[in-house]
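Recall that a protein's primary structure is simply its ordered list of amino acids. Everything else, from secondary elements to tertiary packing, is in principle encoded there. The following example makes that idea concrete.
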Amino acid sequence: MRVNVLVGGPLEMVPTELILQRKDEKWIGVDRGALRLLKWGIKPVLAIGDFDSVTGDELQGLEGKITRIKTYPPEKDYTDTQLGVKFAIQEQADEIEIFGATGGRLDHLLANLFLPLQSEFKPYLTRIKIIDCQNVVSYYLPGDYTISRLPHKKYLAFVNLTPVRGLTLKDEKYPLQNWSSQIPFSWTSNEFTAEENHFSFKSGIISVIQCSDQLK
């Protein structure tokens, strides 16, 4: 089962068309994301966050339309996105796809990008994706993988988020053989050579980003 999480990031980076295609799936609205879901005719199973970006009247409106609302103080141990993912895990999701988590403040973007590396979320790392109008970010543990090209995504990036050993890009446009690094690094602007390509690595954590130049 896929659980979708909508965070309250800048609307211009939110792929509204894709969200509407998933109208009948399970959604969690994080902070202002809950308001946006209702506006688009989607009733989330849960609204969660500190709701510091909504007015008192807007919050009251949520309380009249959403069955489960969990409100937290701004001073808390979890970010709003972490709370959304935490409850998606409790819903026993096989896939957790996060929208509205990019654009705007850089500190928010980095917090969301690094979220799956944290000990509480790392067991679910391969289930998590971050999606916006230009990018789809997936996470991988060591292994040998086949990846499929997504529609409208020209570019392919491999980003080691931790020290990594033995990264090999077997059949991409720009191949790489048994590369290792102790610092984070982005092999950016690579491309598929077929509808499916392959890569492998021996240790560490890697994010793979399929992306495009234009908003879609």
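The first strand starts at residue 2 and ends at 6. Residues 134-215 form a domain with the Rossmann fold fold (CATH 3.40.50.10240).
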